[in-house]
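Hi again,

Forgot to attach this to my earlier email, sorry! This is the prediction with flavin-adenine dinucleotide bound. I've pasted everything inline since the attachment limit keeps bouncing my files.
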Amino acid sequence: MDFNDTPEEADYRAKARAWLEKNVAEHKAMNHADDMAAGKAWQRRKAEAGYGQITWPKEWGGAGGTPIQSVIFGQEEAKFPVQYGYFTIGLGMCVPTVMAFANDETKQRFVAPAVRGEEIWCQLFSEPSAGSDVAGLRTRAVKDGDDWVINGQKVWTSGAHYCDFGILLVRTNPDVPKHKGLTMFWIDMKAPGVEVRPIHQMSGGSNFNEVYFTDLRINDSQRLGAVGDGWKVALVTLMNERLAVGGSTGPNYAEIMALARSTVTEDGNALANDAFREKLADWYVQAEGLKLTRFRTMTALSRGQTPGPESSIGKIISANQLQDLSNSAIELEDQFGIITDTAIAPMEAAFQQSLMWAPGLRIAGGTDEILKNIIAERVLGLPGDVRVDKDVAFKDMPTGR
Ligand SMILES: Cc1cc2nc3c(=O)[nH]c(=O)nc-3n(C[C@H](O)[C@H](O)[C@H](O)COP(=O)(O)OP(=O)(O)OC[C@H]3O[C@@H](n4cnc5c(N)ncnc54)[C@H](O)[C@@H]3O)c2cc1C
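Structure tokens for the complex follow:
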């Protein structure tokens, strides 16, 4: 493991930091209509400077850079108040899938505008009875001449209410086993037959949605990959998802230390409480483990290698730690813990927000249990999960209705 930047990496980091210092200041000084407008303007600014999608080829609006450069820029950007989440799913998962499977005309139309932040994409996979087992989905597409007619429902679609386009996984053949009867398409989210219904979350926000399809008609040219190859196409999206969702955001060990230092409980300063000190020690060990695991990923990228399963391990540990840490922080804040107004809550309600966000982080991009299954099967070589429906035609699977 190598903890230091190579001279080239140090040079790239210094240039990225200098660019960020100048451009974040200019960006913040502008009068953006709202957060979405600000996010789009920031993405455009990055794209013009070659920081929009660093590893993508120049012909598709990227900078032709290396994965380690992308990580370095991400680390530096995270230090500035320009975190706009609108593009994570589109640029991290959907557009790479379009690039891998669409024809040239489709790529010419969509890739560069997405990098410039002009159009936003969503991922339409999960359904009420198909989340971890996404291959069990029921939204149907039936061929009609050169078109497909789609009926069904998706759920938990992040950003569907503001997205322009989406990638949609549907069942085109129920007569074969579940993984073999799927096909992927791209769709226009504003087309007739698409209805987006926002889901109200406990945080008060509405970041994801139910999406209903009623006789949505799309042309066969919107297909991504071959008919029946949808699972293969979806795996490309899901592999990118693990990378895009991997890093957790939110308050960490240092912030709860700061909170504890400034909190006086009825037994004295929180830092003097033995039970709390024990928890602090556990979080410290986890935080150091995560840091060193990230260094391992960085070293692999720096050497041009593909990182191993550590992003799955990192996500399980960091999401659980965030939830545990937030619970303890709220307890520490006592009656102030119920205040969510950022203007008056301790530490601008950082822990109140992360308490409501952390459970979602443990589910999105693969639940804890699914990631543990992956680690057990692919890393530790333990026997596989029981898959009784693997060879059964989808239409013959017992559904209870
Ligand atoms: C913040 C957030 C954003 C999301 N955004 C999107 C999006 O943009 N697009 C999209 O398509 N989806 C999205 N999702 C949905 C997400 O992919 C699913 O919630 C996830 O795959 C789990 O599916 P499920 O909710 O149906 O739970 P289920 O799969 O029904 O799981 C229920 C419980 O059973 C456990 N379980 C299931 N199978 C196994 C097994 N084989 N072994 C052991 N335990 C098992 C799970 O771990 C879980 O605890 C999002 C979810 C969240 C939380």
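The radius of gyration is 23 Å. DSSP finds eleven helices and ten strands in the chain.

That should be everything now.

G.
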